Each structure stands twice: as structure tokens, then as C-alpha cells.
Amino acid sequence: MNTDAIKEDIRQFKALKDNLDLLTKRQTEIKKRLTTSIDEFGVEDERGHIVLAVEDAEQIMKQKRVTKNLDINAAEIILTKKGIKDTCIKMVPTLDESAIMAAFYNGHLTEEDIDTMFPPKVTYAFIVGKSNGRD
């Protein structure tokens, strides 16, 4: 193991992460100022985007994006009025974890069954920092 190379990689990694954090913060600040400029001086185009053209063919844009999500309350009112609410409901069976554990405690399931149904999931976090003596 080349510890000098590893230490250099750690040093570079930390420096890049610090720079990335600073750059992200700076980018957020600039974006906020540009957004304010678009709101003040931009013009809506034919597709609803807000565009601010500046010299040398540079432009910034707040691109319009439209999404449609179901308004549950409005849908329930309309469907109930039309008498078709029941036909528009989808029942989705879901396993009840507390009922599964109750079945285990009542002796209907074994510990092996529970271990199979609830397998452990291992994840790791990548941490770069000073050694804490676990060498």
C-alpha cells in the first residue's frame, strides 16, 4: 500500500470538496441575482418563458414548466356529485408490518421467517477526516 499516494488523494479530495462547496454557494448567490434581473427586466415569449436578452446574443431564461397533479379534494367533490366516486377508487393491498410482527409474537411465524421478510440492508457513508485511532 502506497500511503503517500493515498494521503495525497485524501488531501486533493478534501480540497476539491471545499472548492465545490464554495462554488455551489457562489452559484446559488449569482442565480438569485440573475433571477431577480429576469423578474424585473425579462419579457414573456410566445411559449410563456420569461427571457432576458443581453449583449452579444447572451440570454437567460426562466423556462415555463407546467405539471398537472390530481387535486384530491376537488376530485372527490366532483366525483361524488356525479355519483361515480366508488368506480374511481383503486384499492391497493398493502402488507401491515405491525400485523406481521403480531403474527410472529403469536407464534404463527418463526424468527427465520421474520429474518427472511426483513433482510438487513447495509450501506456505507464515505467519510474523509482525521484518523480516530482505529488503524
Task: Provide structural commentary.
The protein is mainly alpha-helical. The chain has a domain at 3-66. The protein is built from four helices and three strands, in the order αβββααα. The protein has helices at residues 3-41, 72-82, 97-105, 111-117; strands at residues 43-44, 50-53, 59-62. A three-stranded antiparallel beta sheet has the order 1-2-3, with helices on one face. The radius of gyration is 29 Å and the shape is flat.
In a nutshell, what does this entry contain?
By secondary structure, this protein is mostly helical. The protein contains 4 helices and 3 strands. Strand 2 (about 50-55) and strand 3 (about 60) form a beta hairpin.
How do the helices and strands follow one another from N- to C-terminus? HEEEHHH
Strand content: 5-15%
Describe the main β-sheet briefly: 3 strands, antiparallel
Q: What is the CA–CA distance across the termini? A: 14 Å
